[in-house]
Structure formats: C-alpha cells, structure tokens
What does this fold into?
Amino acid sequence: MNKFNVDQNLIEKENLIERLKNLIHEDTNISNKYNEFKKIQNSWFKIGPVPRSKNGIVWNNFQHHIKNFYDYLHLNRKFKEIDLVHNLKEKEKIIQHSKKLIDLNDKFKASKDFERLKKRWKFELGPAGKENDEKLNSEFFEIEKIILENRKDFDENKESILAENHEKKLKLISEIHDLISTETDSVKLWQKKINDFEKVKKTIENIGPIPRKFKKTFWNEYKNSVRQFYSKKNVFFKKLKKIYTSNIQIQNQLIEEVETILNGEDLEKNKSQIISIQKKWKLVKPLPYKINEKNWRIFKEKCDIYFKKLSLNKDLHSKKMLEAKTKQNELIEKLDDFNGDEKDLEIVVEEFFKFSKISYENENIFFKKIKKLLIELGTKKSEIENKISDIKSRLMSADQKNIELKNINNKIDSLKKEVSQQENNLSFFNENSKENKLLKTVHDKIKKNKNELELLKKHKNKLLK
It folds into this structure.
C-alpha cells in the first residue's frame, strides 16, 4: 500500500466523520437520517487503512459520533425500538451462523469466517437492549473460544490433519467413480444416484484443506469426476426426454381415438376397441408425473363418458326391444283370427317386417302361422317354402335381408358338413347291408339335407336379386 493510498483513505474517512457529525442537524425526517447513518457505516468499512499514526485518532473520532447519533436516535422511542429489534435479530443470526462454523471440518476457514462475523458484531451492529446484550455477548464469546481452540489444534497438528483430509477426499472421489460406472436405467434410481453424488460432493468440499503439493492433482481429478458424472446424467435425461415426447404423443393419439368413437353412432360395435385402447394406455411409460396425471384425467373422463353413454343406449335399446317384442306378439296373436285372402296376408307380413329387430323365436312362430294360413288359402305344401321365400325377398328391408343371408350361409355351411359326414358314413356299410334300416336312415337324411340345401340356395338367390 503506497503513501498516496493511505492518505486518500484518511481523507475519505474524515469526510464520512464530517457527514456523520452534521447528520443530526440536517432538516429531514428521522427515517431518512437513519438510512443515511447506515450508508455511512457501510462506506467506512469498505475504505482501506489510513496512516498508522492517525488510525487511533480517526477510529475514536468515528466511534464518538456514532455514539452521539445513537443518543440522538434513542430520543425517538419508536426508532429506538426498531433499532433494538433489528440488532437483536441480526445478532441472533450471527450466533446461529457461528455455531455452524464450530462443526465445519475446515478449521482454518471456520476461523476466517468467524472473524468477519465478529467484525460485523463489533462495528456494524448497535445494542440489542440491556435484557439481551449480556446473554448474547456471553454466548458469542463462548463460541469464539471454541473456534479459537479448534484453530489452535489445527495449527499444532496441521500436517497430519491435511494428510488425513487428503485420504478422506480420495476415498470420496472413488465413490464418485463407482456412481459413474454403475449403470442406471430408471428415473427413480437416477434420482437416488444424484442425491448420493451431491452428498459426496458436499462432503468433499467441507472436509477442509489438503497438502499444497497434492492440491492441483486432486482438484483436476475431482473436477474431471464431477464433469463425467454430469455428462452421464445429461445423456440419460436427454434420452429420457425423447422417450417422454414419444409417449406423450401416443397418449394424445389414444385420447383422440376415444374421442372419435364417442362422436360415432355405433357405440356397442366399438366396445372391444375401447377396451383395447385402455390396455394400450397401461403400457405407455415412462412419462413426466404431472403430464401423465393430466392426460390420465382427460382419458379416464372420456372413457367414463363412453361407458355411460353405452349403458344409456343399452337401457334404451332394451326398452325398445321389449316394446317391439310386445307388438310382434300382438301381431302374431291376431293371425289366429285372420280372415282375409293372400293379399291381406302379405300386408300382415309387410307390417311384421317393419320392426327393425325381430327375435328368431318370434320369426319362427310368425311364419309357422303364415304357412298354415297359406295352406288354408289353397297353396300347395310343396310350394309353401317358395312362396315364403318370394314374400321375404319382396318385403324385407336391406338390413333384414343381410341378416337373413348371413343365417342362410351359416345353415348352408352346416348342412354341407353334415351331408359330407353322412356320405362318409356310407363307406362303413358293405354290400350285405343294403337292406339295413340304419343304411336307409342315412340315405333319407342325405336326401332331406340336399333338398333343404337346394331350397336355401334358391331363397339366397332371390334375396340377392
């Protein structure tokens, strides 16, 4: 520090003393004066040393005017109370901070940090009230004794402590290498690994100094290890981010599929598709928790709406089916009192086919009665099936024809298999079995089934026209 600097520092401190001295007499409110007082204090401690011969005089002069300002300030009871409360809180914070320094592994750093706290306690903060000052000062100076004792112990055993610190840090770096080399493929395990890493890292930084000759080598290795860990972590989470993006898109697509089904008409037909979509949803993972929760609420709500609508439609459908069946039964019962010609009968059949859904049972009962009435009206038994087939092909709706065709195709396939089996059974009979009753039964069944097949094929052709 050259002479010019210390002389300049002296001038700046004397100016601050002058500002402090005149502060009491300034024509401004007490709040502004207090803020200015704090600025002067802060500025004082930022200024460097003054000439040694002037140091004591300048310091005593500064403290004298600080005391004068506090005396002036304490005349105002409100600000006195505010200042006491402020000083109490700040000193309590310093004590809490100082207690933590006792347990700091780096005793050299602890003593340096305590010196800064002590300077603030002594020079920057005023009294905290008579009832608090004695207790606070006693506690603070007890902490100082422990920290100084720790520093003394460190100085006396410095070489062994530094060597021990070095050994501890090397073991911890080995733990970081283990964390890096251990493969981890789940977010949960990575979170645990990161927590373990941060604990090791914090422990290394708090252990304290090591021998100077090892410092450069150690810190290079430490920084490289930290860099490797963060690099591996970043690779995992970048990859995970891509997976997240893909899975979010899949979830949105599944939500859209449910929405499309909801807007459609045939809900019952798409029930299996909804169940399939729900199964697919369960397989989509991993995802960010918040986005997954949000999408799940949307998806679940739409699925719930679907099943609610499906249930309502079923109830409505059951009600309509019951009403239709009741009316069909009424129409079937009216056939018992039928008194008309063939044309009138066709009108009844047409009315029967106006029902969109007709039970298989009702249709059989209805056409048995129709066949009976046709015979009564003079239609030959051999022509009955053709007659019924003609009526159906003319009066059935397109949907009813499709259902009838499906039933006919099923019957044709079934009869073909039956005929094939029966013809295969003939091979088990020899020449001596020609008069066998069982053989005759088989031939009769084959003939009957082939006749029925012909009738079904004719009926099918008429429906296809």
